[in-house]
Design goal:
The complex is a heterodimer. By secondary structure, chain A is mostly helical. Chain A has one domain. In chain A, 75% of the residues lie in helices and 0% in strands. By secondary structure, chain B is mainly α. The chains are: A mainly alpha, B mainly alpha.
Chain lengths: 263, 266
């Protein structure tokens, strides 16, 4: 356990090195948020919906702020697999799955925390209907935070599985792009899941993609009440357990029939 | 003339080399198709839920979406050298080699890359244009066809010009150039919807700074028979020149910036 913790800490420090790049990224992301809110406001003027505009704006800002958690971003690891440098990782006296899990977790957590704090501060200063709104209730906020943490664990497990698949195919760019798209669409980044057709929502909200951001945001905006929370948190827990189990199996099999690339 | 011949020769060569790995090429093209299909799905779902956007009917929205994706991805297809990763040329010092050859830097950069995978994104855009013009019952005339061709052509120059800003940024400082993405990719995301739905500050940015509204939206609105801001028809042929103007300005700035280029070495 201590080893995985230190992997996490090392990765965390590395992320902190690139603070300059973060600023440009934040401004760009804020601009995207403004464009999206403006678009939904224009749509709402034509035809108001049952879900209030304030909730849509809040949804957009929370999505933009935690955008980094969605992206499969460990280009390093992909390179390692392609060049064969992954052989060095295999020599470490660690369980590979846990090693990568810690890496991905640190990257997603710090990458998004660094960005989320200033962005959410900015968004909460915007006028009503444009910016981030207060949570529906203190209980909603607390449950949303728990949900976000569980969602993050779930998504890291999901990404670890895609990494495992990368080891089997050499050129993973096609598959990677496809998975990224599923992630962006089905987690509500391209269009809030709350604006999908109602019949679709019943299925989409059960998928692992929706667990990361959609579920906590709905708890935050009060669209799902604290009374619904046990059901939601259970779904998240079940997915996390299932995906971790699947990932462990996959990595184990990968190591048994491993072919290292490069020379 | 020689330069253009050179450009097409290298395009043919690059295309051939990319097709050497057909399976990988096919997978990536498919991925692009799914990606752009996802963008279009968002428009479809919005239309499904909201019906219309201001004065614009569903067909109009598909048409605007199609104009933007055809323009943007044509640029990425043929101008990959500029839209791809110019900053990495600077960071790695590869730009130095281009300075040694008896051709312009921009020509060489443009000749250095092509992205044929984008053909699937362009196909999605064309499909959106066809569906949109069908749904909105556009009465096509020769003039409208010309307006569309001019708009897309100059739109390509506009997008190239915007990516040149990024290139200039990366020449002056090797650090983060992510900021310019707000204009390029932000412009694409915003201006796949008609400009008049946005509040004034955003409208100003995409009319004056990155004139997507002038280059794409004015002609598109003319073709759809709902002139933007009630402007007369002839404006649809004049305003797209803003795209060419931006490219000309950025070309000059780029040439100037190259004089200050210092190699990063190594």
């Amino acid at each position: 356990m201590k080893a995985y913790l230190s992997v996490f800490r090392m990765r965390w420090r590395m992320e902190l090195q690139y603070r300059g790049a973060v600023v440009g990224g934040i401004i760009c992301q804020v601009f995207f948020g403004l464009i999206l809110v403006a678009l939904y406001r224009a749509l709402y003027q034509s035809k108001p919906q049952t879900m209030p505009m304030e909730s849509v704006a809040t949804y957009v800002w929370l999505q933009q702020a935690f955008f980094r958690m969605l992206l499969a971003s460990d280009a390093d690891l992909l390179d390692k697999i392609r060049t064969g440098a992954i052989a060095y990782d295999l020599c470490r006296p660690l369980q590979l799955y846990g090693y990568y899990y810690a890496r991905i977790l640190a990257q997603k957590l710090l990458g998004s925390l660094l960005r989320a704090a200033p962005m959410l501060a900015f968004a909460s200063l915007l006028p009503a209907g444009w910016g981030l709104h207060l949570p529906a209730s203190p209980a909603g906020l607390a449950l949303a935070l728990v949900g976000l943490a569980l969602g993050l664990l779930c998504v890291c497990a999901l990404e670890n599985i895609t990494m495992g698949f990368t080891m089997r195919t050499l050129d993973s760019r096609g598959v990677q792009a496809m998975l990224n798209l599923m992630m962006m669409t089905l987690s509500g980044n391209i269009l809030p899941l709350t604006l999908f057709p109602d019949s679709w929502q019943r299925v989409i909200t059960l998928l692992p993609y929706a667990q990361l951001l959609d579920a906590p945001i709905r708890l935050y905006t009060g669209q799902w009440l604290p009374a619904d929370a046990p059901r939601i948190l259970m779904t998240q827990l079940l997915w996390t357990a299932a995906l971790v189990f699947l990932g462990l199996m996959l990595w184990k099999r990968n190591q048994q029939r491993l072919v290292i690339q490069g020379g | 003339m020689n330069t253009i011949k050179l450009y097409f020769r290298s395009m043919a060569m690059l295309l051939k080399s990319q097709l050497q790995y057909p399976a990988s090429f096919f997978m990536q093209t498919l991925a692009q198709l799914v990606m752009e299909g996802g963008e279009m799905l968002a428009v479809i779902l919005i239309v499904d839920r909201f019906g219309r956007l201001g004065q614009w009917m569903p067909g109009d929205l598909f048409f605007f979406f199609g104009m933007m994706s055809v323009t943007f991805y044509l640029t990425e297809f043929f101008g990959r050298g500029v839209t791809g990763n110019f900053s990495s040329l600077v960071r790695s010092g590869q730009l130095d080699t281009l300075l040694l050859r008896p051709r312009g830097v921009l020509t060489q950069v443009l000749c250095s890359a092509i992205d044929p995978r984008r053909v699937s994104c362009i196909a999605v855009g064309v499909a959106a244009l066809v569906i949109g013009s069908g749904m909105s019952k556009v009465q096509w005339t020769v003039l409208k066809g010309l307006a569309m061709a001019e708009s897309i052509l100059l739109g390509v120059l506009l997008v190239l010009g915007l990516f040149l800003i990024e290139a200039v940024f990366s020449i002056h400082s090797v650090k983060s150039v992510e900021l310019v993405n707000a204009l390029t990719y932000g412009g694409r995301s915003a201006c796949q919807y008609p400009i008049d739905i946005f509040p004034r500050p955003l409208r100003l940015i995409f009319t004056v700074v990155a004139p997507f509204a002038l280059t794409l939206h004015v002609p598109a609105a003319y073709i759809l028979g709902k002139p933007l801001y009630g402007w007369p028809d002839w404006t649809a042929f004049v305003t797209p020149l803003a795209g060419a103007a931006l490219f000309a300005v950025m070309y000059a700035v780029f040439q100037r910036a190259m004089r200050f280029y210092r190699s990063t070495g190594s």
